[in-house]
Amino acid sequence: MDGGNSAVKLLYAFNRLVEKWMALVTPLCLLIGVLFPEFTGRGLPFVPVVFGLISFIGGLNTRFCDLKNVFRRPLPLLMTLGTLHILLPLASCGVGLFFFSSDPNLITGMVLEFVVPTAVVSLMWVSIYRGDSPLSLSVVVIDTLLSPFLIPLSLKLLLGSTVSIDTADMMRQLLFMIAIPAVAAMLLNEFTHGRSKEYLPSRLAPFSKLALIFVVTCNSSKVAPYIRNLTPKLVAVAVCILLLAACGYAVGFLIGLFTRQKREAVVSLTFGSGMRNISAGAVLAASYFPPEVMFPVMIGTLFQQVLAATYGVLLK
Question: What is the DSSP letter of 119?
């Protein structure tokens, strides 16, 4: 019994440690994947299933009534979705075409980086800086549920015939990797009348962090050849991704201010608009595109948590 309690305490301590140092954890996972691709690449076949676990645990914080309450005042939700799926995808496509017109794979990677849904980990940052948690939960869940339709549609509209996409298979993978686990978690909350929402998220949070570490580390193996052999062009891609990602946070923040939202909503708009589910993008890049597409997607892991911490300080 004491051994079981010790294991639980160790898991909770691990969860707190990862949350505290999230800005360093994901870049470290990227580094390990790049340094040991022969070993970390063995986990790639299991990444979609593990990612489904992340989506399920993330969905445990939400009930259908939470979504209904947000729809009563939908402006912050619509503004966040507009930033995520209109402004930034268009900006990333424009920047890619302007600077890297001769390399469609890099353009595809840049666009893919900014059409994936908002990150589940944004909920952690919203909680830390006392944002509007129901709003953020709704953004994550609704964006997650829409992603099987929005991602293929956005890629088709922005990239057209420059890439060949198996849209039906991509939608199927997104449904099983993101949407179905999230809906299953919400249904569990309904069947248990909210009891699972009270107890399960905190108990499963350490496993969600372990799953995130696994996904980022394994996917990083695919980008190892490019990071090991950086060229001026790839450095330029990294700088563009950094600036576009920083703009995502800034746009969310400014929209919240100019529309006179409450402070809590401004916090949620900032993190919701700036953070991306890079792991989902990496899974798609590995499954449906040439290896070069992975670089713009995965390089975002170097910046996302650091940018979140920086904007968190500014929000204070």
Answer: P
Q: How far is CA 24 from CA 15, 32, 221, 296, 307, in A?
A: 14, 12, 18, 19, 11
Nearest CA to 62 among 110, 133, 129? 133
Q: Select the more confidently predicted residue: 234 or 160.
A: 234
Question: Which amino acid, 9?
Answer: K
Q: CA 306 to CA 271: how far, in whole Å?
A: 12
Give the global pTM.
0.76
What is the radius of gyration, based on Cα positions, of the chain? 19
Mean pLDDT of all residues in 179-202: 83
210-262 residue pLDDT tens: 888 888 888 778 778 777 778 888 899 999 999 999 999 999 999 988 988 88
For 179, which DSSP code? Answer: I
Residue written as token pair 């990602």 = 245
213 neighbors 31 (Cβ within 8 angstroms): no
Place of tokens 């595109």: 289
**CA 82, CA 268: separation in Å to the nearest integer?**
14
Give residues with Cβ within 8 angstroms of 186, minimum separation 6. 59, 62, 63, 64, 141
